[in-house]
Specification:
The structure holds two protein chains of two kinds.
Chain A lengths: L3 H16 L20 H15 L5 H4 L5 H11 L1
Helix pairs in contact in A: 1-2, 1-4
Chain B lengths: L5 E9 L6 H9 L6 E2 L12 E2 L12 H4 L4 H17 L1 H4 L6 E7 L4 H14 L8 H5 L3 H10 L5 E2 L7 H14 L5 E8 L4 H9 L29 E9 H6 L6 E10 L12 H13 L9 E3 L9 H11 L5 E3 L2 H4 L6 H15 L1 E2 L15 E2 L5 E2 L4 E8 L3 E8 L2
Parallel strand pairs in B: 4-5, 4-6, 9-10, 9-14, 10-12
Antiparallel strand pairs in B: 1-7, 1-8, 2-3, 6-7, 8-15, 11-13, 14-15
Helix pairs in contact in B: 3-7, 8-14, 11-12
Classes of the chains: A mainly alpha, B alpha/beta.
Protein name (chain B): 3-oxoacyl-[acyl-carrier-protein] synthase 2
Pfam families (chain B): ketoacyl-synt (PF00109), Ketoacyl-synt_C (PF02801)
Keywords (chain B): Acyltransferase, Fatty acid biosynthesis, Fatty acid metabolism, Lipid biosynthesis, Lipid metabolism, Transferase
Chain lengths: 80, 408
């Protein structure tokens, strides 16, 4: 089981790869759209990459609830 | 003849001969070939294993994250448009975005994206298909990305007329300015189809050179031993501007875009009319549109692609529409055939030939076809005082476009 810090760091890698987000900017309280400038198409890429990386399934109706990095970490922690 | 003058104030290109206009033009004047072997693993089983690939990869120019959302054709389009825009000085001068239009095409569109994403679909399923797929494969993507970068709001038009696309996009730019719909038009075209499927398709038509052992000698328009075209990739952008708009800001002017002629053959979906009737009508229309006569045309940048079927018809056509006097060249002997982007790159070569008074050579014309009865700038660049020049582009589907550029 990955820790919250490990999941955050894994998400940071994905965000850097697909959206050019500086890993240093990634923290649990950050909003994907407002703070990290991840647009809706890139968010789809983040979700698919996260599913692969953490072995979880993130249904589309769940994605809208993932506003912050912390929301995603919590979901992945609970479901992987 | 129109009362509105249209001039060229900026040029941009990324081609097999160079990553920008200056290096491409230098290579052309030096008679260098941009054709080389295809070393990719997929090329092994193909009958054609040569192509003219970009001299500078887009990844050296465009930031990584942006590049992964662009088809290769879009990336090339953006690179050439950025250069042309900077070259025009409009970035500093400022432009009314509601009067700025884009007319930019592609012959085939985002085929590399289409095929790559299809592989992902087959191997990993639909959920793995990139959400950027559609804006990457759509044929208006290159025009739209340029419009987005420059903030063009007077319309973003996307041409598709196969190998006449680039010239038709320039012709539409002329129309838009003459009709008062824009002050500035970013015109041009892009093509990126160096991929086994398009190559196999063209090769199955027996349209491509199979001179795999001598890539640099494979593109040989009008040579008796020509055996087909050589696929090239790249993009070219031409900034068209209403002449008084350019004058008011003290812009540097390369040449005047004096006229255009567009016709269709109504003959065959791919075979050129051997009498070049549609090409002749396009050339005559363009000359008339420019307020000139055939005698005024000093130079022709020909479409001549190095195919046995196409090259000689155009020679007949030039003789009929213009006469026996112009100095003719085919820069495809060096760049390969950029398909939809050919008309843009060759417009740039025509414009620079006028500006510099020098005609780039047709290389590999070692043993001219016995029917070649016009003066071709064979092997070496030729100096010439050019007041007016014509650029021909013909495309599958029977599209014929002739453009006339004159000295500013």
């Amino acid at each position: 089981m990955a820790t919250r810090a490990e999941i955050t760091s894994g998400l940071a890698e994905i965000l850097e790869e697909v959206a050019g987000v500086n890993p240093d900017d990634v923290a649990e309280e950050k909003s994907f759209t407002d703070d990290l400038d991840v647009d809706s198409l890139s968010m789809v890429e983040v979700v698919v990459a996260a599913e692969e990386k953490f072995g979880v399934k993130i249904p589309d109706n769940e994605v809208q609830n993932l506003k912050t990095v912390g929301d995603a970490v919590t979901y992945i922690e609970a479901n992987h | 003849m129109s009362s509105v003058d249209v001039v060229v104030t900026g040029l941009g290109a990324t081609t097999p001969l160079g990553g920008d206009v200056a290096s491409t033009w230098d290579a052309m004047l030096a008679g260098r070939s941009g054709v080389g072997p295809l070393t990719q693993e997929w090329a092994g089983p193909l009958p054609v294993r040569i192509a003219a690939q970009l001299a500078v990869e887009p990844s050296e120019i465009i930031e990584r994250v942006k590049l992964r959302r662009l088809d290769r054709a879009e990336a090339m389009a953006v690179i050439s448009a950025r250069e042309a825009w900077a070259d025009s000085g409009l970035a500093d001068a400022g432009v009314d975005q509601d009067r700025l239009a884009v007319s930019f095409g592609t012959g085939i569109g985002g085929v590399i994206t289409t095929l790559e994403q299809n592989e992902i679909l087959q191997s990993s399923g639909p959920r793995r298909v990139s959400p950027h797929t559609v804006p990457m494969l759509m044929p208006n993507g290159p025009a739209a990305h340029i419009g987005l970068e420059l903030g063009a709001r007077a319309g973003v038009r996307a041409m598709a007329s196969a190998c006449a696309t680039g010239a038709e996009a320039v012709a539409l730019g002329l129309d838009l300015i003459r009709a008062g719909r824009a002050d500035v038009v970013v015109a041009g075209s892009t093509e990126a189809v160096v991929h086994p499927l398009p190559i196999a398709g063209f090769a199955s038509m027996r349209a491509m050179s199979t001179r795999n052992d001598e890539p640099e000698r494979a593109s040989r328009p009008w040579d008796a031993n020509r055996d087909g075209f050589v696929l090239g990739e790249g993009a070219g952008t031409i900034i068209l501007e209403r002449a008084d708009h350019a004058a008011a800001r003290g812009a540097r002017v390369y040449a005047r875009l004096a006229g255009a002629g567009i016709t269709s053959d109504g003959y065959d979906i791919v075979q050129p009319d051997p009498e070049c009737a549609g090409g002749i009508r396009a050339m005559r229309t363009a000359i008339r549109d420019a307020g000139l006569t055939g005698a005024d045309i000093h130079h022709v940048n020909a479409h001549a692609t190095s195919t046995p079927a196409g090259d000689m018809g155009e020679i007949k056509g030039i003789r009929a529409a213009i006469g026996g006097h112009p100095i003719v060249t085919s820069t495809k002997s060096m760049s390969g055939h950029l398909l939809g982007a050919a008309g843009a790159l060759e417009s740039i070569a025509t414009i620079l030939a006028i500006r510099d008074g020098i005609i780039p050579p047709t290389i590999n014309l070692d043993d001219p076809d016995e029917r070649l009865d016009l003066d071709v700038a064979a092997h070496k660049a030729r100096t010439a005082d050019i007041q007016a020049a014509l650029n021909n582009s013909f495309g599958f589907g029977g599209h014929n476009v002739a453009l006339i550029f004159t000295r500013a």
